[in-house]
Design a protein that fits this description.
Helix content of chain A: 25-40%
CATH architecture of chain B: 3-Layer(aba) Sandwich
Oligomer: heterohexamer
CATH superfamily of chain A: DsrEFH-like
Radius of gyration of chain A: 12 Å
Strand content of chain A: 15-25%
CATH topology of chain A: Hypothetical Protein Ychn, Chain: A
Largest sheet of chain A: 5 strands, parallel
CATH topology of chain B: Hypothetical Protein Ychn, Chain: A
Number of domains of chain B: 1
Distance between the termini of chain A: 22 Å
Shape of chain B: globular
Number of helices of chain B: 5
Order of helices and strands of chain A: EHEHEHEHE
CATH class of chain A: Alpha Beta
Largest sheet of chain B: 5 strands, parallel
Number of domains of chain A: 1
CATH architecture of chain A: 3-Layer(aba) Sandwich
Structural class of chain A: alpha/beta
Strand order of the largest sheet of chain A: 4-3-2-1-5
């Protein structure tokens, strides 16, 4: 009965990732897409907040959006998993609902 | 599984339409069904056939129209949002006394009830926006 | 029309007037009411500004749609969840919000409040209990 | 003093066009001059005559068209941005092989050079956007 | 030779007000417009940052946008001045350039 | 064309691809080059992502316009100010950015860097020195 949360904006520009992480339940998944993927970068101001949540819920980043912004899986906070669009669909199907933090 | 997709932003300005399109393709590739794609807010601007994007860029309207044709997708443009933003089909143009229309092939204009119905009928509703 | 009865949550996280999302979101809620689903609205983050009392758009030249919230009760939309922490962070109190009420037909049409202030943990549970979450 | 105004967003979705319009009126009321209003990005969507906003709401396209007529304002829609978003005048429609056009009265389609020129010629350039 | 900075987004949603305040020079003016006006409210998380800058530069809020959001001059951080569209034009004319923090 | 020569600053504060502002901003810069004004670009906040090295948009299905930055030198646009604090906050180093250079015709066409890393205080001074600031 868990939720897939999507976040599509940079946490440096908008509050949506923070707000999302403040509202997840244990067992939920958070998928960073579009500009949201930059929030998953190791060593950034936001890395701590993300790492703290990773475990209670699973954090994913969309690979095509990482690549577009010149980022690789190895650039990410430990434990963040990279998925493609097919993986996005699987996550949406596995969880009971999708909540977009627009 | 049966998906509904909502697109809240127009093409190019925001990535929402691109992501929704790639997501829709992946849904179909996995053998799932798409009950409806609903275009709301500026999303209605995906449905104008007047766009002429640069030759070296993707044509989002065409991509949606082609996907609709090849997979018999139901692409619905919200009528209230469309009126505010100047998206018309032949019927609407006549009704509003406008001298032309710009709706693209494969898109149809209908009411917000179609969005609620999509929420009811689909197993998952996924929103793409700003 | 389908017999299914689902739980719909409309998530409002944006201030009114700066963008149209608040107004067009209300249009969905009103149309959606005819479908007889379980409907709730969540006001989180800047979404709480949508409920500010005394909105006056005359000088800005925009349409004031704030009265529509007060009419929601007549459409059987009676659960407007407002997040306490979102109010606090913005220096707002619930008294700064407009009164939104409904008439309870099971209690001699007594006027009852539709605004329900919840904390962040409760809001998370509300989200986790939905069938459909519509964000704008 | 001579002002130039840039509008980066379409009508209704963002307040940018409203604020720019109120600012333009105030500039004129103060006896200043408006060298040009340049519509860029989604701002080009202010220039379609196909919009039919609700009766009880303002009609931003009409407000701009009327302000342009009464004060001989130069309202320029960026051609590159307009092509991506489906805003056409009769010339562009012909050139692109489209079957109609939707440009509103008082707006003209031209190049980005008009924006640079506005920056050069105006004493102040003010940008309204998302 | 000073600058008029405009900020049109809520500081609770976006980073633009913070970024603007980080880049003002002494003698500049900051005008909050559209959703930006909510940042000027007394008692909010952002009131301190705004009050700290008020003095080195002048902070203004657009009255019509305050009214639309149900706010009055008395709700604002001390020292924030309210102007209308005519006042906006005057500020733009007085300063040497206008910088929009979009 | 006017004889005036003004200082134009293009302020880039948004990541590429999530929105079109970066791409359409470049289109103005290229056209503007023909007007022979003083032109600088500022990369502040998420604008620094526009300069990330190794952008690959194939899987996202979007147009990769990052090569255009490297061509700016040929258009006499040679001052791309990048804010150090913006890089730091995002866990980025200048080595993560693409090399952008120009050929200096006054120095035997030597390749010189167009990217100039400045701190926030310097960026404030750059803004304060402009005639026209274009933000997208």
């Amino acid at each position: 009965m868990s939720t897939l949360h999507t976040v599509n904006k940079s946490p440096f520009e908008r509050s949506s990732l923070k707000s999302c992480l403040d509202h997840v339940s244990a067992g939920d998944a958070v998928l960073l897409i579009e500009d949201g993927v930059v929030g998953a970068r190791k060593g950034s101001q936001f890395a701590g907040a993300l790492a703290a949540k990773n475990g209670a819920c699973a954090i994913y980043a969309l690979g095509p959006d990482l690549a577009a912004r010149g980022m690789k899986a190895s650039d990410l906070v430990d434990g963040v998993k990279v998925v493609d669009y097919a993986g996005f669909v699987d996550l949406a199907a596995e969880k009971s609902r999708v909540c977009a933090w627009l | 599984m049966r998906f509904a997709i909502v697109v809240n932003e127009g093409p190019y300005t925001h990535q929402a339409s691109d992501t929704a399109y790639q997501f829709a393709r992946a849904v179909l590739a996995k053998g799932h069904e798409i009950f409806r794609v609903f275009f709301y807010h500026d999303g209605v601007n995906n449905g104008t056939r007047y766009t002429v994007p640069p030759q070296d860029d993707r044509n989002l309207q065409k991509l949606w129209s082609e996907l609709a044709e090849s997979h018999k997708l139901d692409l619905v443009v919200c009528i209230a949002a469309a009126q505010r933003r100047g998206i018309l089909d032949a019927n609407e143009a006549k009704r509003q006394g406008k001298d032309g229309d710009n709706i693209a092939p494969g898109f149809r204009i209908s009411g917000l009830g179609q969005l609620i119905e999509a929420g009811i009928e689909a197993d998952r509703l996924v929103v793409f926006g700003d | 029309m389908s017999e299914t009865k689902k739980k719909f949550l409309y998530v409002n996280r944006k201030a009114p007037y700066g963008t149209i999302y608040a107004l067009e979101s209300l249009e969905v809620v009103l149309i959606g009411a005819a479908f007889e689903q379980h409907v709730s609205l969540a006001f989180i983050d800047d979404g709480v500004y949508q409920l500010m009392d005394g909105q006056d758009t005359a000088a800005a030249g925009m349409k004031n749609f704030s009265k529509t919230y007060k009419a929601l009760g007549d459409y059987e939309v009676r659960k407007l969840y407002v997040e306490r922490e979102s109010l606090d962070e913005r220096g707002l109190k619930v008294e700064n919000l407009m009164p939104v009420t409904y008439e309870d037909e099971d209690d001699d049409y007594a006027e009852k409040p539709s605004l329900i202030v919840v904390d962040r943990a409760e809001m998370s549970k509300i989200i986790a209990a939905q069938d459909v979450v519509l964000s704008f």
